Amino acid sequence: MSKFSSSAKDNQAHNIRLYVIVIGLILVVVNSYWISMNDFLKGLNHTYMSLFSNAIFTLFGLILINLLVRKFLPRLAFTESDNLVIYVMIVVVSTLSGHRMTRFLGPIAHPFKFTTAENDWRDLFWRYIPDWFTPRDTRVLDLFFSGESSLFTLNHILAWIGPTLYWSGFLFALYIMLICLNVIIRKQLTDYERLTYPITWMPLEMSRDGSSFLKNKLMWIGFAMAASISFLNGLRAFHPSLPYLKVGWRVIEFSDKPWSYMGQTRISFQPFVIGLSFFMPLDLSFSAWFFYLFKKIVQLLVGTTTGLRNLYFIEQSMGAWIGLGILTLWLARKHLKQIFLQVFRGRNIIDESKEPMNYRTAIWGIVLALVFFLFFSYKSGLSLWVILLFLTIYCFIGIGVTKIRSGLGLAVHEM
Where are the domains of the chain? Predict the structure, then answer.
């Protein structure tokens, strides 16, 4: 990790050029469209895993192009900082465009699109929904859900512009709050607990000036093995006579008791997960499969003795993530106390030079985001205690996921 840290430190003073930001913005739009089309039309979730495949692919393409630019136009060649800025831009926006985030926004129109005489939604709760909350024009919604029209008509734009801006403001405030929370706990996770951020190793090594990443024969052998599987399966879509190498889920499920109590056992061969596991601590790699088998044993024993089939493991995992978030804040209590004394008592205790913003700004960012959420919930008719409870639970889960991703680099989290 030292080479990564020192390299990043050397580039702190590097000024990002304007054209790098412009290229980053263009690639952000391209990646957002790419993710949306794959997610909604193809069912491919690039952001389902902790290491976003679209961002890594884009970074890899930039590095290859940069080899030619460095040879013929060296003044325009990207530096390590340039590559990482574009990579971070793509990752941040991909979280908005990708898995499950935008899917939560579509249902806001359901009360008006799917109202019928039988469900009587019009009389049940239409009056509780503000006019700005969602489009109400059923003609616009019919075309939206059928897909037989274009967004770029005056009626459609007027119907969607208001809700889009309001909910974009909500998401913007949510991201501001999460970024500010990360600023506050960064020193605790990085300096005090010394977490290694394994999911950053690959983009850092790819971007590092003078890196041997592209010259590493083992890397290209591994790349060829993984890529050949996808290439062959892709060709099979056009030529069905070719063999198919199944790397997705294989579901094994027993029909006879007591083995049926174990439910579905999913087995898959995913090269990228195998590669990512090398970045994980050995004890975590062991516990990942050990406790999966242990869970099956628990299902078998509980099912045999009580007859229960569903033990609500996903709901239990939600409680575990909340508990992990609370535990993370408890372990950081000394650090949080120092921040409080520095911000509100004026004591110079913590060095803030490595932070993207000072702690006072981060706290003000959280406060302003909370004020916005309270105002948003009040105007939308939501009880204040509900939005406060939601934000509290959301922050605990976010901190818990941050802790695990920072220290272990899990490919996915069950939630």
Answer: 107-149
